[in-house]
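C-alpha cells incoming
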C-alpha cells in the first residue's frame, strides 16, 4: 500500500523525467508552491538534452539550436530569477548553411535583406513568393505558437474554437505543399520546408502550421547555450533545488500508483514507494500509458491505439572528436545541413516505406567553432545526424547488424563533401541509433521525437497535458501538447501549470519559516 502524503506538510508533486519539459514543469510547480521531487533514470538531468564526455570531448547528445529564448526568460521570471544570470545564451549568425551535392549553398541568417539576396542568387523568380512565405509564416506563428500552443487543448471545445483558424490558414496542407505553392526552385522548396525534421515530422505530411518555425527563427534568432544544453538543464536543476525541491538522478519509475481512479504516487524499479498529491510524467506518453500504467485499464490511450499512432522518425547520430583540426575545414561552421541526392524520395523511404536508404541527408554540428569547452585545445567536436526509419512495425532495421555499415557510409559522405580526411584525426567516437533511444530514453519504437506532429496527432488529438485517463496525473514534454522541440516542451509546462490546481498547502522552505518566527 502506498504511504499517504504527509498531510501536515505542504502539497507534493512527483515529476517523472528530467527532460527539459520535466525540469521546466518542476520549476513551475515549485513556484506554484508544490514540494517537488524530480526523478530521472539517467545519471544526469536534461534527457535528450544531456551530454556525455569522452577523451576530453563533450558531446551534447541532442538539441543544438535554441530558438525563442523568451520562453526561458519567462520561466525563470516566474521562479523569481533572472535567466541571463544563470545561462550564457549567445546568438549564432549565420544560423546555418544548407548545401547540395551539386555545390550550391544557401546561407540562412537573421537579416531579411541578406536572405532575399540569397533567394535571388538561387532563383530570382522566387523572390516575390519568398516574401509571401515569410508573411504566411508570421500568421501561423501568431496563431499556432502564441495562440493555441500556449493554451490547454484538453477539451474538444478548445479545438472546435480553433477550427476557423485552421481552415483559414490551410492547416490541411503539408509544409512541403505550402512551400511549393510559393517557390518553384527545388532547393528553395527544401530550404523552406525541412524544419519539421527538427521535430521528427515528415515535411510532406506535417501540417503547414509548422512553417511558423521560419518566422520564429527570423524574429528571435538562433542561439547556442555556452556549455551546451546540458548547462541549461543543470541550471534548471539548481533552481529546483533552490526552491527546496529534490532532484534524484539514477532513479527509474516502474509504476504510477492509482487509487480510486487517481494517481497518488510511484514505485521505483528498486521497490521504493513515493506518495504525492499529483504526479507529472515527462516520460513519453507511450511509455507512461503502456508501461508505467500497465496494470490500469485505459479508455483512450490503449496499447492498440498507441500502436496505431504514427511515431516520429528515428535518428542515427555519430558523435566524434578530431585531434589538431581547429582551423581546418574553414568553410564548415557551427551548423551545416548537407542534402543527399534525393529529398522527397528519401522522406518516403524514411517515413512511409521504413526502408534504410543508401543515400542520406546529414546535419553536421561543429560546436567547437563557438564553444571552446567542448573539445581539448586545438581539437574539434562534431556530431553528424542522419534521419532514419523508426523501429515501428515488422521488418525494422537490425541496428546491431547495420550500425557499423551505416557509420562507414556516413563517414564516406562527410569525407567526400564536408570534412575530407577527418578519419585520420579521430580521437573519440560514440553512436546513438534508434535502439539507443529505446534503451536510454525508453522511447517507443526508438522514435527521436515521440508522436509525429501530423494534424490528427496535434492539439486536442495529442495525449493531453491533464490525463484523460486518471485524476491527479499530468503530462509534459514532446509527446503531449504542443509538441517536440525545446520551445514547445517548455511551453507544455506553461500549459500544464494552467491545469494543475494551486498547491492547497504551499511549500515554505525552512529558512523562510525560521526567518518569519
Ligand atoms: C539528436 C536530437 C537533436 C535535437 N535537436 C534539437 C534542436 O536543435 N532544437 C530543438 O529545439 N529541439 C531539438 N531536439 C528535440 C528536443 O531535444 C526534444 O523535443 C526535447 O528535448 C524533449 O524534451 P522532453 O522534456 O519531452 O523529454 P526527454 O528529453 O525525452 O526527457 C524525458 C526524460 O524522462 C526520463 N524517463 C523516461 N522514463 C522514465 C522512468 N520510467 N523513470 C525515470 N525517468 C524516466 C528519461 O530518462 C529522460 O531523461 C532534438 C532532439 C534530438 C534527439
Amino acid at each position: 500500500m502506498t504511504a499517504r502524503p504527509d498531510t501536515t506538510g505542504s502539497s507534493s508533486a512527483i515529476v517523472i523525467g528530467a527532460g527539459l519539459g520535466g525540469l521546466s514543469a518542476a520549476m513551475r510547480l515549485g513556484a506554484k508552491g508544490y514540494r517537488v521531487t524530480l526523478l530521472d533514470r539517467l545519471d544526469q538531468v536534461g534527457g535528450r538534452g544531456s551530454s556525455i564526455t569522452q577523451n576530453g570531448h563533450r558531446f551534447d547528445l541532442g538539441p543544438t539550436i535554441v530558438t525563442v529564448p523568451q520562453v526561458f526568460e519567462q520561466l525563470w521570471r516566474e521562479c523569481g530569477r533572472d535567466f541571463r544570470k544563470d545561462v550564457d545564451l549567445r546568438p549564432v549568425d549565420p544560423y546555418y548553411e544548407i548545401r547540395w551535392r551539386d555545390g550550391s549553398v544557401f546561407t540562412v541568417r537573421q537579416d531579411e535583406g541578406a536572405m532575399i539576396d540569397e533567394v535571388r542568387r538561387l532563383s530570382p523568380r522566387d523572390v516575390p513568393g519568398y516574401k509571401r512565405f515569410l508573411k504566411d509564416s508570421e500568421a501561423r506563428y501568431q496563431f499556432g505558437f502564441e495562440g493555441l500552443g500556449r493554451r490547454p487543448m484538453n477539451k474538444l471545445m478548445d479545438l472546435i474554437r480553433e477550427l476557423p483558424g485552421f481552415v483559414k490558414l490551410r492547416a490541411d496542407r503539408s509544409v512541403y505543399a505550402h512551400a511549393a505553392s510559393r517557390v518553384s526552385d527545388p532547393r528553395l522548396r527544401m530550404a523552406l520546408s525541412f524544419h519539421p525534421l527538427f521535430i521528427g515530422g515528415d515535411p510532406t505530411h506535417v501540417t503547414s502550421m509548422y512553417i511558423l518555425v521560419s518566422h520564429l527563427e527570423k524574429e528571435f534568432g538562433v542561439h547556442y547555450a555556452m556549455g551546451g544544453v546540458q548547462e541549461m538543464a543543470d541550471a534548471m536543476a539548481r533552481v529546483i533545488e533552490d526552491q527546496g525541491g529534490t532532484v534524484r538522478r539514477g532513479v527509474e519509475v516502474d509504476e504510477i500508483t492509482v487509487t480510486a481512479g487517481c494517481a497518488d504516487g510511484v514505485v521505483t524499479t528498486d521497490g521504493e514507494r513515493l506518495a504525492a498529491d499529483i504526479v507529472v510524467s515527462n516520460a513519453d506518453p507511450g511509455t507512461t500509458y503502456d508501461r508505467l500504467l500497465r496494470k490500469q485499464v485505459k479508455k483512450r490511450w490503449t496499447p492498440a491505439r498507441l500502436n496505431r499512432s504514427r511515431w516520429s522518425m528515428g535518428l542515427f547520430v555519430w558523435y566524434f572528436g578530431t585531434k589538431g583540426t581547429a582551423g581546418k575545414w574553414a568553410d564548415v561552421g557551427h551548423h551545416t545541413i548537407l542534402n543527399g541526392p534525393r529529398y522527397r524520395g528519401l522522406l518516403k523511404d524514411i517515413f512511409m516505406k521504413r526502408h534504410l536508404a543508401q543515400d542520406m541527408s546529414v546535419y553536421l554540428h561543429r560546436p567547437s567553432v563557438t564553444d571552446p569547452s567542448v573539445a581539448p585545445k586545438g581539437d574539434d567536436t562534431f556530431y553528424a545526424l542522419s534521419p532514419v526509419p523508426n523501429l515501428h512495425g515488422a521488418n525494422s532495421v537490425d541496428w546491431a547488424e547495420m550500425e557499423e555499415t551505416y557509420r562507414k557510409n556516413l563517414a564516406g559522405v562527410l569525407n567526400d563533401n564536408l570534412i575530407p580526411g577527418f578519419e585520420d584525426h579521430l580521437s573519440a567516437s560514440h553512436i546513438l541509433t534508434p535502439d539507443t533511444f529505446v534503451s536510454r530514453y525508453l522511447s517507443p519504437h526508438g522514435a527521436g521525437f515521440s508522436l509525429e506532429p501530423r494534424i490528427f496527432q496535434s492539439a486536442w488529438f495529442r495525449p493531453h497535458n491533464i490525463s484523460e485517463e486518471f485524476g491527479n496525473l499530468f503530462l509534459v514534454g514532446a509527446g503531449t501538447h504542443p509538441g517536440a522541440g525545446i520551445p514547445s516542451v517548455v511551453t507544455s509546462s506553461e500549459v500544464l501549470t494552467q491545469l494543475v490546481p494551486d498547491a492547497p498547502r504551499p511549500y515554505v522552505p525552512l529558512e523562510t519559516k525560521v526567518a518569519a518566527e
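note: The longest strand covers residues 314-322.
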